[in-house]
Amino acid sequence: MAQGRGSAGRATIRDVASRAGVSVATVSRILSGAYTAPPATHDRVMQAVQDLDYVVNANARSLNTTSGLIAMVVNDITSPFFMNVASGVEEQAVADGRVCLVCSTQGVPERELSVIELMRQRGAEAIILVGGMAETEEHLAQLTAAAEGLERAGSRLVLCARPWKGGAKAPVDVVECDMESGAFAATSHLLSAGHTRVAHLAGPHEFSVAGQRLEGYERALRAHGVKPDPALVAESDMTRESGYEAACRLLTDTDATAIFCASDMSAAGAIAAARDLGRSVPDELSVVGFDDIPLAEDLYPRLTTVHVPQQELGRSATRLALHRRPMDPPSRRVVLGSHVVVRQSVAPPARLNTLGKVDS
Amino acid sequence: MAQGRGSAGRATIRDVASRAGVSVATVSRILSGAYTAPPATHDRVMQAVQDLDYVVNANARSLNTTSGLIAMVVNDITSPFFMNVASGVEEQAVADGRVCLVCSTQGVPERELSVIELMRQRGAEAIILVGGMAETEEHLAQLTAAAEGLERAGSRLVLCARPWKGGAKAPVDVVECDMESGAFAATSHLLSAGHTRVAHLAGPHEFSVAGQRLEGYERALRAHGVKPDPALVAESDMTRESGYEAACRLLTDTDATAIFCASDMSAAGAIAAARDLGRSVPDELSVVGFDDIPLAEDLYPRLTTVHVPQQELGRSATRLALHRRPMDPPSRRVVLGSHVVVRQSVAPPARLNTLGKVDS
DNA sequence: AACGTTCACTTAACCGGTTACAGGAACTGG
DNA sequence: CCAGTTCCTGTAACCGGTTAAGTGAACGTT
Question: Average pLDDT, whole number, for chain A?
Fold first, then answer.
């Protein structure tokens, strides 16, 4: 039970010192483990701490020492993809003895900067931006400024699962996944199964990651001698709902026999749309997703998708931020690979005909 | 660009003051918006801030002022249910002008206490524990102690989506959902459809929320004149995988025609198990879930489940922590309702027979 | 001209820790 | 017995902000 000082406010190190009959320096040293005091003193101090229910004030402490704080900025703490990446960041951070905090921008791009500012004020050792968003020139300029400021204070800004779109060399460390080749592989998978009318359920065109996936898709088409048809590309915002709507348009307005979706979420929407329109998957429509979030296993049919190493993206980001030697270049970039994992949502278009059904 | 002081470390308020030719007090007041200085002074200070790339040190600042910090502690930042609740907490917190941080225990119960300690050290205004875990007596005692300490410092500890299992009256605010009656309704729904052999895919028995669901299930059975059969209750840990395994046992060892699952995740496992064993859902097996996470819409068939108002649980928790008047009782408790949302995973067992199939 | 206000700021004492420096006791060796 | 270490501890100056109290100039009043 707390006693001694009036029960208002919290006990300070001086309260502890005077109760234990020692100086504040001694208390500070004992509590921070800076040295081993003789048992008698040690016990007396610990007893006082207990009696007063003393808790160090970490804010005051970090005026003199480093905070040991890693901050993550996420757009949407509800997104499985981002949070899987985040769990990788955290795993590595606590393995390196740091405290790891997540803060959300709630989908508002401007809040990204203010959250960064906030963690910078708090003395974060590293700030890791998880996931992407539509970035204006100005936004990127401010990001660069923030990175410089952090740099000067000995901290790092790292982009994770988000490419740098600011032209030239990125002023920060970047960990990303090679999505262009992932998209290439996914589209090739569909083409190899015999599809020629392969649609793409794209992400928002302002999203850099969406652009990469679109490029991989088009490159695969060309590589297989198929002419890209703009009518087969529909845009959605990567959510289930907008995926559903875009897929409906694709299914009613075009003769697509397969859809490559920019995310597993929108693939879930596409599968639901197919079902509601009476097209069975994969017999009458093949679907491929992107990301390989846990949901992919739960869809019916189980979703063939491009696996993105989410946890590993996160871990790499933390390593980049923390494991730094003086001779390292000012900004580094690591690109992880992706590969398609085959499940049950793809079948040859041929089956359509053997079943005696007509397409279009 | 930063100039003036050597580029090491970061600029302090004194650097700004001397560059602008005013005292630190003036800078502090202008920056914290405490008063409106004449334009000339104001501009000079702002210019100095810009030139030096000055960022306040929030740690130093919060030595004198309150931190305005709300901390959430979550077991698994990858869990859709918890993160939906968390997004509610956050939404309300930023609406109330606070900064909101999420910290994970990574599933380790002991880390819950150290994370609480950590945020307490940091002067958090409120700490919100999202979701439950198996709690020992000792753990609860330490939680109580932490709550008292926070109380004394003018902060609050709130349990969200997690009942207090410490006997007697909870020493903290609690927001929970009436899961017993949700489970009652879900089971009743199955019984009303004509099922008499209703199994329960329970959560771990140490989990308080799992206990509530089991009780509701049994009460519904008795209310419909069905004798609870222990053989029909299988335990899993609420994940998809363990749900799959437990459901397999249920399907091969018993004559259950319906399963009420303790979570949507384990329901996903149950549906997969049924599919792999050749039992079609809902025609040959009805399934009901619990939570109503987004996944429920994506399963096939779309999952009938008990809707838990996740965001609202979170919002209430924040309100409880922040909107407090002096005359309020030391600890409050709010219980939200739940209701079953009917989708496509339940059908009468009768169909089994009309299709000419035999059960067991 | 004398006086009370208001305005625009400065001085200096905090907030709650850490830590460089210094002092005294105990121990060691000569 | 004394100098040299070593060990333990205290004093006080920091860290980087906020803020109560105070100062001096300008202004309006009578």
Answer: 92
